[in-house]
Amino acid sequence: AIRIDQIFKNETAHLEKEVTIQGWVRTRRDSKAGISFIEVNDGSCLRNLQVIADRSRPELESVVERLATGCAVQVQGVVQASPGKGQSIEVHAERIDLFGWADPAVYPLQKKRHSFEFLRTIGHLRPRTNTLGAVARIRNRLSFAVHQFFQKEGFFYVHTPIITSSDCEGAGEVFRVTTLDPAAPPAPGNPDGNVYSQDFFEKPAYLTVSGQLQAEIYALALGKVYTFGPTFRAENSNTSRHLAEFWMIEPEMAFYDLQDNLELAQSFIKYVISAVLDDCQEDLNLFARFVEPTLMETLETLVRETFQVITYTEAVEILKKSGESFDYPVEWGTDLQSEHERYLTEKKFRKPVAIIDFPRAIKPFYMRVNDDEKTVAAVDVLVPRVGEIIGGSQREERLDVLLKQMEIKAVPAEEYQWYVDLRRFGSAPHSGFGLGLERLVQFTTGLGNIREVIPFPRTPGHADF
Ligand code: ATP
Ligand code: MG
Ligand code: MG
Ligand code: MG
C-alpha cells in the first residue's frame, strides 16, 4: 500500500498506475448514474483521496453499499485525472475491502463541524478529524525541528529525570510520588480503596516541574545540552494555556550570558516556525481559514523581524501609560498577567517581545542577580495570542551570591548540596530557558485552548485513558 500524501506529492508519476491505499472513509456519495464517490483519508495528510466505484460491478456494489463515514477500508485501483472540482486526481476502484465497519447510526463523527468541546469528550476518535489530525502533524514537525535545531547547533540531548527529589523551587505546584502498598488491607476512605505510602521508597519525591537544575549539571560538563520531555505541574485552575502535564524544551548552555541566551531563543523559535511554514502549508491553511485569519501574517512576522527587547521596568511603564483598563493593576514588583502580555505583543509592538531583568523578589533563587541588586537576569519571551512562551535566565554562578539567595528565599541548603557544589568546583557562567511545546503549537495553529494541541490533555479532573 502507498500513503496518500505520497501520491499527492507526485501526481503525474502515479497517473494511470495501480495503487493500493488504506484509510478511513470520510464520506460516501452515490450518483444516480450508479457511481459512488468515496472520500478516503489515511492520516498522512489533510487531503482526502477520492475513490470512484462503479456500482454496476457486483463485487464493488456489495461492499460500497455498506460504506459509511468512519469505516476502515483498503482500495486497489488506478489513479486517473479527475474531472471533478477540488481535486486533480482520483482512484478508480478495482477492488475494495472493508476492514472495520462503523455504524452510521452511532458513529459520533459525521460530516459536519463539531465543536472542540464535543471533540474533547471523544478523545479516542478526535484525531480522525481534520483539525486534530492537522494539529498532530504540526506538533510532530515542531518536535522534530526542535531536535534538528539543537543537533545542528552542537547541543547534546540529555534525559533529565521524571521522578526527582527537587521541586525546582518556585517553578510551580508539584505532584508528589507515592507507592502503592499491596500488602496493606484496603482503605475504604481512599477513592480507589488502596493504601499508599507517603513517599517514594521512604524518601519524598516529586514529578518533575522542570529539568533545568539537572540540565545545568550536564551543561557544566558537555557545554551545550537540551532536554525535551514531559513536565508536570499541579495547576489547580482551568486556564486556556495551562496543563498538568506538558512537554518542555529546555536548553542549557555553559559560557552563555543573558544576551547569548536571548539570541539563541530567538533563532530557535524562528527555525522551528520556518520548518512548519515550509513543510506544513496545507495544515496551516486549515487554521488560517477556519481559526485565525491573521495566522500567516503573525508567523511570517515572527520569522522576519527581530524580537522587541525591553526591560521589565520599561514594560511596567508602558503598561501604566497605555490607558488600558486591565483586570489586574500593574505595579513594579508584581508578575505580569496574560492580559498585559497580550497588550504588549498584540497592540503595542505587534510582534514577539522579550522582557528582561525581572524583580529579584518574584523570581526563583537560581537566577543571576544583576548589579542593581534589585533585578535578576531573567528573560520571558511573549508572543501574540499566547503570551509567555519562554521563561529563561542566566543562572547564578557565584557561590557567595547563590548562598545568599538561598538564605533569603529559604531554600534548604542540605537538599541542594549538589547544586551548590557546581559553584564550588569549576563554576562557569551559564544560561538556559524553558519553552512549553504546547504553547508553541498554540501559537503556530492559532488555537485558543491548550486542550486541543496535546493528544491527551491532563487538567483538573481529567486524566482520561
Ligand atoms: P505561566 O506564567 O504561563 O504560568 P510560568 O512562568 O509558570 O508560565 P515557567 O516556569 O517559566 O512557566 O516555564 C517555562 C515555560 O513552560 C513557560 O514559558 C511555558 O511555555 C511553559 N509552561 C509553564 N507552565 C505550563 C503549563 N502548566 N502548561 C503548559 N505549558 C506551561
Ligand atoms: Mg506558572
Ligand atoms: Mg510566567
Ligand atoms: Mg515563566
TrEMBL record:
Cellular localisation: Cytoplasm
Keyword terms of this UniProt record: Aminoacyl-tRNA synthetase, ATP-binding, Cytoplasm, Ligase, Nucleotide-binding, Protein biosynthesis
Entries under InterPro entries matching the protein: Aa-tRNA-synt_II (IPR004364), aa-tRNA-synth_II (IPR006195), aa-tRNA-synth_II/BPL/LPL (IPR045864), Asn-tRNA-ligase (IPR004522), Asp/Asn-tRNA-synth_IIb (IPR002312), NA-bd_OB-fold (IPR012340), NA-bd_OB_tRNA (IPR004365)
EC number, UniProt record: 6.1.1.22
Cellular component GO terms, alphabetical: cytoplasm
SUPFAM superfamilies noted in UniProt: Class II aaRS and biotin synthetases, Nucleic acid-binding proteins
GO molecular function, one term: ATP binding
A Gene Ontology BP annotation from the UniProt entry: asparaginyl-tRNA aminoacylation
Domain Aminoacyl-transfer RNA synthetases class-II family profile positions: 137-455
Catalysed reaction, written as an equation: tRNA(Asn) + L-asparagine + ATP = L-asparaginyl-tRNA(Asn) + AMP + diphosphate + H(+)
UniProt feature coiled coil, ranges: none
Enzyme class: ligase
Subunit composition and interactions: Homodimer.
NCBIfam families in alphabetical order: asnS, PRK03932.1
UniProt similarity note: Belongs to the class-II aminoacyl-tRNA synthetase family.
The name this protein goes by in its record: Asparagine--tRNA ligase
Organism field: Desulfacinum hydrothermale DSM 13146
